[in-house]
Structures are given as C-alpha cells and as structure tokens.
Amino acid sequence: MRRPLLPILWILGNVLLALELGLASSSEDPLVTLPSGIRRVQALGVHNAFALGTNLISGSSPEGNEGFASLARLGVKTVISVDGAKPAVDLARQHGLRYIHLPMGYDGISASNQVLLAKIRSTVTGPVYIHCHHGKHRGPAAAAILSLASGAWTPEQANDWLRTAGTGTNYVGLYRSVREFRRPTPSELGAASSTFSEVNRVSGMVEWMVRIDMHWDRLKAARATGYRERAKPGETSLAHEALMLVEALRETRRLDESERKGTEFLGWLRDGEEEAGRAEQWLRELARAEDEPIRRHLDLSFDAIGRSCTRCHNAYRD
User: Fold this and answer.
1) CA 111 to chain centre
2) CB burial readout 102-111, b (16+ within 10 A) else e
3) For the CA atoms of the chain, what is the radius of gyration?
4) How far from 104 is each of 11, 141, 257, CA to CA, in Å?
5) Is 95 a member of any domain?
6) What is the pLDDT of residue 311?
7) What is the pLDDT of residue 214?
C-alpha cells in the first residue's frame, strides 16, 4: 500500500529544518551519545553550542555579526552572558537581541546569582542563549542552574550535561554549585530584582591582581611545607588553587587595561598562566603518588611563576 505523500513531505521538511538550524540530534563525534533532550547546535560564529530543551541554548561568546545573526536565525530573543568581558550590546541590538550581563567566576555560582538566574528563568520569555567565553565551564554551569530552577532537570541530568559540555571536573566549585542547588522560595524570588542590567561592572586590573596574589600566596605557603595538602574541611585542593591562578591570569590578560600595557606585560601574564597550568598538573600527580622528582618539577614551575610576578611588580607596581 502506498503511503500518503503529505505526511512524508511534512516529516522530511522538519528533518531538513532541523539540519539547517544545526539541531540534529547527533554530536560532532558520531560515537558520542548525548543525554536525552540535548542536541548539538551547528551555527556560524558560535561554538560548543547545545540546545537544552526548546527555550535554552548554551555556547560560546558570539563572534561578531556572524554569531549574533546565527542566534537571531535560531529564534533567540535574549542573550545572557556570565563572562567577565563587556557584552557586545550594540551589536546584539542590531540583530534584535536583548542582553543580560551576570558575570561569574570559575570558583562557583554564588547563592545570590543562583537566585537571579532563577528569576531570569521565571520572567524572561522567548528562547535564551547563555554563554561564557568558550562555552565550556561557567556558561554550562549557569545553564544547568536555569534548567534546575525551572524543574526541567534533576541534579543527575545537570551533572551529565556538564560533562557533555566539556566542563572540567577540576572546576569543583562549578560542579558543587550545580550539585547543591536548591530552588529559591517564592519570597526569595519576589525579593530579587526583575531589572536586569545589559552591562554590569566587571572586575578591573586591581581586583584581578588581588585574586592572583591571593592564590599565589596560598601556593607559596604550601611550597614551604613540601606541597602538603591542607586537611581543613571545605578547603580546596592545591591543584584547584593552581587552576584558579591560571584562570585569574587568563582573565587579567583579556582586560583592555592589559592590552594597553603592551606585549611585554601580556607576555608575562601568559608565561605565568602556562607555568601555573603545569603546576596544576604536577600537583595532581603528587596527590596520587608521593614522588620527589614531582616536587622538583613543582619547584621549577613555582620559580618560573615567581619570576613572571617579580618582573611585572618591578615594572608596574613596585
């Protein structure tokens, strides 16, 4: 028996539409099975993008006209940035998109920001695109909070999503925020402002330098004790401390103030970032196996970080 032609054409049309918008259910790697309800989005000017249900897309910072045009074609109405960089508000407006800026750090999502995300979820209509810089760590964690706040996900689904997005398990604060999230009460939501800023004040050079000094001081203190892990409940590991130093140096390097200081200054920040990354890996190795050669590698990395800091301080602070 011949099948009616109209239903077949309707099904084919929807498949072609999904492919055009990049919402095919397969991932870039055909061997990777995405969690139920999550689809990879292929669109020009955005990266690491996934549709989480029908009204939320998570990904990287949109790149220029191309990125915002892609979001508009996908039906996005509101863009939420949890990145520290100033959002491209004017460019978004040219494509009919509204921006909400809620900058966050890599150490976790504060309780107040969790309430604001829940407020956004309950008041903002239309498809939403949420992003950090690369779309792998802070953005996916915030997207998980949005989905948990709406009741669409369980904590287990949220955890699966973080791994799908590529959120490093070494970002323990982000995983903890998602794992321990509790939905705000009606009174908490009612007390939260429904006026969301397009551009919020972001951390400047002085604030980032304070963070760098804080993480570096903790690591130097650990070196003095032979890189012994601290045992106090609630404190992060030494490797995580090094990771936070990496991110603080990276975010400082992205500041306009840093760009204005020139290539030499940016090079010192980059050198410190690379050595802090090496130190993080050696500290993870040391946590698995006590080994004297690892301590010698750590000493070399710490010495290199110290030289970068000293050159910067001599030129710009001292």
Assistant:
1) 17
2) bbbbbbbbee
3) 22
4) 42, 10, 20
5) yes
6) 86
7) 87
SS3 13: helix
**Nearest-CA neighbor of 42 among 61, 64, 55, 25?**
25
Is residue 251 within 8 A of residue 277, CB to CB? The reply is: no
* DSSP state string for 95-163: TT-EEEE---BTTB--HHHHHHHHHHHHH--S-EEEE-SSSSSHHHHHHHHHHHHTT---HHHHHHHHH
Provide the residue type at 65 as one letter: N
Residue 56: both structure tokens together: 């939320």
Answer whether residue 12 is part of any domain. no
Q: Under a CB-based contact definition with an 8 Å cutoff, are residues 123 and 154 in contact?
A: no
Q: What tokens does 186 get?
A: 């009606």
Question: Is there a domain that residue 197 lies in?
Answer: no
Residue 14 has pLDDT above 80, yes or no: no
Domain range spanning residue 277?
205-317
Q: What is the mean pLDDT of the chain?
A: 85
Which of 191, 224, 256 is the endpoint of a domain? Answer: 191
Residue environment code for 13-35, b if the CB has 16+ CB neighbours within 10 A, otherwise e = eeeeeeeebbbeeeeeeeeeeeb
Which burial class, exposed, middle or buried, applies to 317 when counting CB atoms under 10 A from its CB (0-12, 13-18, 19+)?
exposed
Q: Residue 219: which residues within 8 A CB-CB, separation 6 or more?
A: 238, 241, 242, 245, 279, 302
Rounded to whole angstroms, the Cα distance separating 283 from 302 reads 11
Amino acid letter for position 83: D
**Percentage above 90 pLDDT, the chain:** 61
Q: Which two tokens stand for residue 263?
A: 């290539």
140 and 35 within one domain: yes
| Cβ 210 vs Cβ 253: under 8 Å | no
d(CA 195, CA 191): 12
